[in-house]
Structures
1.
Amino acid sequence: MHHSIPRLASAVLRRFFIRQEAAAADVDFVVQLSTNFFDLYQLFRELYGSRIDWNVHFDRLLDTLFGAWSARPATLRRTDKERVDRGAWYADGSLIAMQLYVDRFAGTLENLRGELDYFSDLGVNALHVMPLLKTPDGDNDGGYAVSDYGAVQPELGTMADLTDLAAALHERDMVLILDYVLNHTSDSHEWARRARSGEPAYQDYYYMYPDRSVPDLFDEYLPEVFPETAPGNFTYVREIDRWAMTVFHDYQWDLNYANPNVFIEMAAILLELANRGVDILRFDAVPYLWKQLGTTGQNLPCAHTLVRLFNACARVAAPGIAFVAEAIVQPVEIARYFGEGRWEARECELAYNASLMVLLWDALATGRSALVSLGLSHLPRPPADTAWLNYVRCHDDIGLGYDETHLRMQGWDPAAHRDFMIRYYTGEFPGSTARGAKFMYNPSTGDARISGTAASLAGIEVALESGDESLLTLAIDRHILLHALILGLDGVPVIYAGDEIGRINDYTYADDPATAADNRWMHRPHISRADRARRARVGTVEQRIFSRLSDLIAARRGCPALAGNGRAEVASCDNPHILGLVRTGRRGSRALILANFDSHEQFVPATLLAAAGFSGGGLDVVRATPVVPGRYGLSLPPYGYVWMTLDRAGGR
Ligand code: OTU
């Protein structure tokens, strides 16, 4: 049965080229389609092969791919070629990204195009602009409820502005990253409107049920993403007397990917965004893409098949683009989105390192490195040609998901630890200078996630209020420490806009009815040009943080051990406050990264230095000074860090 597939596939491919003469005459397309055809065919059949009309849909997919390729601008096709030749361009260590809201940073896309020097100043060469496609006014989950994938939110500009931004970035050798919100649409999307007006074909674009029987069965297993503001997973649609699946908010209708029409339309949308010049697409809420009764509806095998199929489509019609998995789940589950076995590097080439992010915040709160050391040593390694996307903060809350076994190994009770973290980051814990807020607090279980900017969580807000300079210095050091770690590790570091100048929480969200119910807006600050200009005035918080981050970025770029796509290995250490990482890079180069999470000076034991091959110290690549261990080992100041190499000539 199985070996007949290549024969059948070849016949379909031949038929396609006979039908589409223009495709057969396009050498690049012939190569791209032929080399990926078997994958496309197999994946599509896996998902839709049980339908009697599956091959009709498959033919339509092929036409869609050729249509997208035909529309792909020549400049982007050139980049495709360069990137395919270069291989894994997104994972070679050269990308350092910043994530920002266009409206809150520059007002419009056009204005943003005038601000690109700022990014070069800092040293970042990739911009992740938050969702900017058309959404309804009012409730739109910060752009994650799209009502028209073919248009930009009018206040921000037009599709032409998006194309221009991409072109301006490319001219500077920069990269554009954009969200691809594919799990759900807004309930005012045309498909949803037609479903609501009774068209069965569009009702089939969503999960719709005539009564509560199936929804009740689903609800038994599906977790709630926003239990406080959007309990349950279904919403009653009065006009048609049906229940629509809405795992996120009630206005975000989950798309039904069991319907091949949905897949084909969404693939066309993905390729259209790629043709606008988007280089990397962030697959929003990727674990949720496939639903099945009796499961949690997360990380199902078909969700992976779907991403593979999207990836195969991109290889055919926009081979220069890459995907990021936004999967805030268990580390092993996240890593599966890199692809496994023959699918390695053929699902999402990048994935958010949510595990590292929460471990960094644990280390800062506890002052101890044990959990992050353990977590990092158990973190799955990205397969060849893939990389982690490392971040300290993003636009979402911090979900306190820790490995319970690892917690117990420290003698920590998981529930007590969670309670400590919540009280620490909301500033309730004695001695804590953090100022965050509970997100989605459930008093009956004690469960909560954390909102707040990195600066406020690191203590900068409280320090500024107190006017105590020594407190402020410590808080800034804490803020920098976490960034020094994401910038020292292999992968793509992403700095969340505002963090590079230490923006504290913005509480004005509570005054706006559109944002008041969602405290994640406190860490989505407006950042004006005047705010950014303060980085030039010596002694301001903005200057103190911006200059240190830009130094770190320059040091990373200039240091062979840190600049490439090497690996980091945890160095075991007797000091419970110190995290040690040995980073290997280009041509066997090595760097030792050390971090002190304690509020006091700590010594890095000589045993660690010896085991890592740094007994005699080395060169501090950020400060360009020698590092010399003393009698008790190497001294690190409170919340201090060092990146050092054996390279005497200097890392920069
Ligand atoms: C994402 O986050 C976005 O980052 C959020 O801003 C959106 O609200 C949401 O999707 C809906 O589009 O639950 O708390 O495993 O954790 O997709 C944030 C992935 C979220 C989910 C994630 C989701």
Note: The longest strand covers residues 578-584.
2.
Amino acid sequence: MLVYADNASTTQLDKRVYAAMAPYYTDIYGNASSLHVMGRKALAAADEARGVIARCINATASDIYFTSGGTESDNWAITGVARALKDKGRHIITTAIEHPAVLNTCKDLESEGWDITYLTVDSDGLIDLAELERSVRDDTVLISIMWANNEIGSIMPIYQIGRIARERGIYFHTDAVQAAGCLAIDVERCNIDLLSLSGHKLYGPKGIGILYKRRGVKCLPYMKGGEQERGQRAGTLNTPAIVGMGKAMELACSSMQEDSSHVRSLRNYFITRVLAEIPDVVYNGPKDDELRLCGNANFTFNDIKGEALLARLDMAGICASSGSACSSGTTEPSHVLLAIGATEDAALSTLRFSWGKYNTIAEVDYTVDKLKEISSELRSATTLFKQFHGDDKYV
Ligand code: PLP
């Protein structure tokens, strides 16, 4: 059996999305900037997708800009505002648990003399709104806080953050890459000025995303070149991917209730079985369904090396993750787990399972059965190892 429990890293393309995209590779392949019929058809399709995406997040279509994905949208939002407002102030507020697309962009700005406040989070991965209010300064130009965390699934109080930002006249950017498809997004209600989304987290194609940029927000273009996207984002439009992202958003919005309740019930069943049947496991992140992404389950398997468990699960046909996809392949403990108070050892014993709309109860059962078997084997090996080496480490 193959079980894909890594939907926070990426999702399977929905076949309906694939079908919508196909003609834009083979038949309607014109450059959307060309004036001839093929170009006009491509542009019309991109604009239709723009309209669908705008409706899904309660935005105006002309405020949606296509990018190459969540990473570019985050980079653009932060550097674009920083460059546009550098004479007004040089302070940005973000959190310690953002995706590297935000954190590394902020680090770059720090090296250019910007002051960045990284808000701490509690053991559930949630910020303290009072700390946010205390961190605001006269020279703060941007608050960039993710809607939901990719590793532990915590959902930030976006509505309240938006209100604080708006009252203080500070731009608010949110990375909603993980939230989309699971939570309703309304940029008006939440006073959001800039918002990042990515196609491949929503059963859409990879290499496409959007930046929502509210009309009038001062944010300089990030990609320089031609005049595509109203002179804001240069580069030939990736029409098939744009059409795919539009279709993926349409499907995600229309079946959000149904999909998220299916995913949530699988996830909750998984958690119940893991905690009941596998000893010495800690469930990380918010316990309250309202405060956690529907598919996310993050566990620390004490005394087991996460990478070893991950490799054994992989051999059993189960795809999970030892952190964010971007940091897998390194043995560095996750910055998110450290920020919620985990020790380095605990962080290195942690795996994330992210369930999606195509998963089934039989797959969850198979995963728990294998987890039980493999964790018990690895723990026995650790016990033997310690007996021989007298080491406090584990295999
Ligand atoms: N932001 C978050 C919260 C993510 O989880 C990811 C992907 O893992 C990204 C940004 C980057 O998105 P993309 O892969 O489209 O560049």
Note: The two ends are 27 Å apart (CA to CA).
